[in-house]
Amino acid sequence: MDLTDQATTIREGxxxxxxxxxxxxxxxxxxxxxxxxxxxxxxGHSNLTYLVTVGxxxxxxxxxxxxxxxxxxxxxxxxxxxLSAIHEVYPYAPRPLVYSKDESIIGCPFYVMEKISGIILxxxxxxxLEFSPFQVRRLFxxxxxxxxxxxxxxxxxxxxxxxxxxxxxxxxxxxGWNKRYRAARTPDVPECEEIMAWLEEKMPPETDRPGLIHxxxxxxxxxxxxxxxxxxxxxxxxxxxTLGDPLMxxxxxxxxxxxxxxxxxQQAIRFMPTHLHGAMTRKEMVSYYAELSxxxxxxxxxxxxxxxxxxxxxxxxxxxxxxxxxxxxxxxKAMSYGVTVxxxxxxxxxETSDL
Length: 355
Fold this sequence. Notes:
Strand 1 and strand 2 (48-54) form a beta hairpin. Helix content is 39%, strand content 13%. The protein is of the alpha+beta class. Helix 4 packs across helix 9 and helix 10 (300-323) packs antiparallel against helix 11.
């Protein structure tokens, strides 16, 4: 049984010009032989991802979404440059092949990278894949280890010292995401003003150990070896990577973390199989990261609340496009409910926090 992530028919309204792509790639990449085909990976809610096959060679094309997008989001060149800088020192990063800013090809900048073939875990384990509770625990530990490995990269030696401004990172993130939510809010979602005010008030001190952070590190952005699913072989979706506080990265990851004991409304919006028997709890994830890094976790309520709120903003920005008719993707129709649930979860963190 093939459990690897599969591309399928391209969605209506997201078709690309195959002839123009083929002409560009055959000029840009040497030794492409055979017929070229184009399919789309159906998952993901932000940048669009396509499978380009030429003969027996598989590559991945990444482009921004159609419709409204945040002014500084979906920077294809930035994503391409980050991968170019780290794929040799961080073995999980895909190898980038070519970038183009020529909008005459598909209407926007895009880049192409080598495909990492493997298993991607989403809401539930795929049929045919089973883990014992011990294996689940070990896989979740590996997830934390791979994240910490990213944070441990000496980014100055990779040429990425100017890819972000670590000083003041937390403050800029809080201010920026608050602004994004207000800009994207529709009449059918919570105002979230109390959450935004709490985040502004409870910001932790500046980290003295900034690092390269992914900013969307979760199971459906991780590729597992199809021959050994306990082994992580790839990390995808680098569009939000930058330099900043590593605990912000961990907090954003835990924004997605729904435990098996969480209430039904949170279970309803679970994105990943974090409910499995043997899965690490949020508390255990934080403790294990602290053990690996030696960092103190005194302010982690802030980081988790920020992770929940930031996820609410991301979901709302996607829903905004659907609400205003900028996409017909029916997956986005019920996302306002997700914003409400995340608002409630963030409020619960605030109510129980001793910050």
